[in-house]
Amino acid sequence: MPKILNSRIFVIFFLALFALNSCKNLDSLPGGDARKNPPDPKERVKKNLEEGRGFRLDTALQGGGKKGGDFMFASANELWRASLDTLDFMPLSSVNYSGGIIITDWYSDGNNPDESVKISIRFLTNEVRADALDVKIFYKKCNQVASCKISQKTGSLSAELKKQILSKATVYKKQNKDKNFKPYKGGTTTRKK
Prior knowledge:
The protein is α+β, with helices and mostly antiparallel strands. About 35% of the residues lie in helices and about 20% in strands. The protein contains five helices and seven strands. It has helices at about 1-20, 40-50, 55-60, 80-85, 155-180; strands at about 90-95, 100-105, 115-125, 135-140, 150-155, 180-185, 190. The strands form two sheets. Strands 1-2-3-4-5 form a five-stranded antiparallel beta sheet, covered by helices on one side.
């Protein structure tokens, strides 16, 4: 019993010492000094918004906030759309637009259930060009005892897949470009601003 009591006293002493030590620099915390902040809550909210330390729900829903990143949605990225459209017959295991990667699950066409394929596409850039994608194809071959061998293959399938994605992305890019053109009354076309 004395050992438990001593360990409890030690823990309580340690926590009290930690709490007292962390309280000594309150004036260095943002918003910790009342003299530097306006007393009116509306003025404090306005000051915090101007300094980028908060957001208003009404402007966030309308997209009128000044701070934050400008993200191109996945539907506007031609390579991303083309890759998903090309792989739409396969189940997807992991899709991360911000990380720039698509990984399918193991897929077998049903003719040979002991063999399956998995595709990984990594986006190196958003531009539609030949070196924009890193396509890897993995094959899994299993025997009757359920021991499987997985290997990465390079060859024509990877090149064909990349070519198909790039050709679809080129079509999507042309469609997006054509949407930005508006016919002029004189019969020529001009770009929207």
